Amino acid sequence: MTTLGTGVLRIRNWLRDHPLALDGALALAVYVAMVVGSFVDPGSHHGPTFGTRAPAAGSVLLMALGALALVWRRRRPMAVLGATGVLAVVELVTADPPAPVVMSTVIALYTVAARTDRPTTWRVGLLTMGVLTAAAMLFGAAPWYSQENLGIFAWTGMAGAAGDAVRSRRAFVDAIRERAERAERTREEEARRRVAEERLRIARDLHDVVAHHIALVNVQAGVAAHVMDRRPDQAKEALAHVREASRSALNELRITVGLLRQSGDPAAPTEPAPGLAVLDALVETVRRAGLPVEVACAAKDGPPLPAAVDLAAYRVIQEALTNVGKHAGPGAKAEISVVRVGATAEVMVLDNGRGTSAGTGGDTVRGGHGLLGMRERVTALGGTLTAGPRYGGGFRVHAILPLKVREREPDHPGAAGRTGENA
Predict the structure, then answer these.
(1) Bigger pLDDT: 224 vs 104
(2) Residue 399 confidence (pLDDT) above 90
(3) Strand, helix or coil at 348?
(4) How far is CA 69 from CA 22, 38, 84, in A?
(5) Cα distances (angstroms) measured from residue 45 to each of 48, 137, 176, 327
(6) What's the Cα-to-Cα distance from 246 to each of 85, 215, 239, 252, 280, rounded to whole Å?
(7) pLDDT exceeding 90 applies to what percent of the chain?
(8) Contact 59, 91 (CB under 8 A)
């Protein structure tokens, strides 16, 4: 049974790939059926009898032409229907009893109904039914209500209905297939979008980690170089801070890059992402680098912040402190506050720096890609971020993060993207 089913499937696929061969085989089968049917005499007193009559030469020719026209039924369905209809009318008018040339018209009408729309099927089907039935009733020797005449009406009507049903089913199947393909494309696009967002998030994390720790390394290395000859003990202490900062940078880089590992790779570290719980350690590192920092973190007293909000707040503070160390200049100090205000958490980092020699003064716009990364991170959570010089000197970074994180709307930029500072 399996072999038989496989053979039938192969034949069907071959015929589907070669429609002209299928139509040729169908035309031959219809011709044989019409010839066999032409030997049937429907007018016998004891019912239809076979072999009591033979078709005329003209009827054989009309049957051959009607069957031959079916070879092109897929390419020119309306033309084939018109040609077979004319041949059937000629047979109904000239022969008595007529040969079943109308069988080719029935096949042609089915093809038209299966390949056009429903209004066209109704118009063409009713016209074909009316013309053939009228020709049979008006020119035949049998009474107008004979079963042969009613059979022509019934067969043409069923051909149109069957073709319309096949067309509707094909349209339904095509709609289901198109919907499935569209859903598959949507899933692939969603997967690509999520991959792009994850890459952007990882890139921001890498920037935050590298920028913060490298800035600390740079500051401590400068201190060590400055006091190396006069105060070697302080130089050793600065170099120890350099080593600690570099070790921390390597550990965080290892954690972040571990997210990119494949399933078959060695297990990645499972340390949690940094947040306000380790804010004291971050502040202590900055203080050891020589930057005084004051902290007021009321958000620690209440329920823990959502993980995404907690990480974003930590990264904003980290990047802001990095910018203070790089741009605020000597004698600067920073103030950090994290408070809950209703359904939001507000993070503010202030400094009183006057700018370094590398900048242009206290109004220097700081941050570069770091400021842009902060804005993107806050906007991704549905929050807002403003950053700019303070009146009287210094710099201010203010982020408002919603405690209930929503999906970012890509076509509706958040307020963080509308601040007046260039990144």
Answers:
(1) 104
(2) yes
(3) strand
(4) 14, 19, 7
(5) 8, 20, 54, 115
(6) 91, 10, 10, 10, 18
(7) 18
(8) yes
Integer angstrom CA distances of residue 85 from 5, 135, 350, 408: 38, 11, 91, 64
Instruction: Return the number of other C-beta atoms located less than 10 Å from residue 156's C-beta.
Output: 25
Degrees (nearest 5) of the Cα angle 402, 212, 251? 95
First to last CA, the chain: 72
Assigned token pair, 46: 């004891």
Tell me how far apart the alpha carbons of residues 80 and 174 are, in angstroms, rounded to a whole number.
26
Distance CA 255, CA 247 (A): 12
Q: What is the reported pLDDT for 347?
A: 93
Instruction: Please list the alpha-helical segments (H only) found in 116-146.
Output: 118-139
**Token pair recorded at residue 100:** 């079943």
pTM of the model: 0.47
d(CA 109, CA 73): 10
Place of tokens 């993980």: 307
Tokens 């890498």, residue?
A: 206
- Whether 79 contacts 90, CB under 8 Å: no
* pLDDT of 4: 67
Signed CA dihedral, 72, 36, 29, 153: sign only? positive
Q: Which residues contact 27 (CB under 8 A, 6 or more apart)?
A: 67, 68, 69, 70, 71
Supply φ then ψ for residue 417, to 5 degrees. -80, 0
What secondary structure does DSSP assign to 140-198, as a single string? -SS-TT-HHHHHHHHHHHHHHHHHHHHHHHHHHHHHHHHHHHHHHHHHHHHHHHHHHHH
Beta bridge partners of 349: 336, 397
Pair of tokens at residue 126: 């009713």
The whole-angstrom separation of Cα 130 and Cα 137 is 10
pLDDT tens readout for residues 1-29: 557 667 777 777 776 777 788 888 888 99
DSSP string, 275-309: -GGGHHHHHHHHHHTT--EEEEEGGGTSSPPPHHH
Separation between Cα atoms, residue 143 and residue 139, nearest integer Å:
10
Quote the tokens at residue 155. Answer: 């067969």
Check residue 368 and give its pLDDT.
56
